[in-house]
Amino acid sequence: MSSVPDHLQYTSEHEWVAAGVNTNTFRIGITDFAQSALGDIVYIQLPKLDSAVTAGAVCGEIESTKSVSEIYSPLTGKIVAVNGELDSAPESINADPYGKGWIAEIEIEGPAPTLMTPEQYRGITA
């Protein structure tokens, strides 16, 4: 069974969202379930720094030995940080999807949206 940390929120596209350093910034990545389904990750196209992203829209791409998958932004806002370490070590997503394998940070305007709870996400991956 995949790891689903209780302190995160989730999307049906298998992304996770964590509260960031301030109330308007959130760190995102793909879930343990997603990285497991992809297999060995060999390349990631990160979102562009300072680019605008829309919830549900494609913001990047992950290539594995099995397939190429799109990364969907779970939030609407602006990319304020990307994990540049993934350029040389994309396999970090496989090894530590909720830690070293984070993808980007998004700054939003307004209140934080409500996404799936860990319990709801476990329901779609069971």
TrEMBL record:
Coiled coil spans: none
Entry-linked Gene3D superfamilies: 2.40.50.100
Stretches assigned to the Lipoyl-binding domain: 25-107
InterPro entries hit by this protein: 2-oxoA_DH_lipoyl-BS, Biotin_lipoyl, GCV_H, GCV_H/Fam206, GCV_H_sub, Single_hybrid_motif
Keywords for this protein: Lipoyl
GO biological process entries: glycine decarboxylation via glycine cleavage system; protein lipoylation
UniProt protein name: Unannotated protein
Family of this protein: Belongs to the GcvH family.
CDD domains: GCS_H
Taxonomic source organism: freshwater metagenome
GO CC annotations, alphabetized: cytosol; glycine cleavage complex
Keyword Cell membrane annotated: no
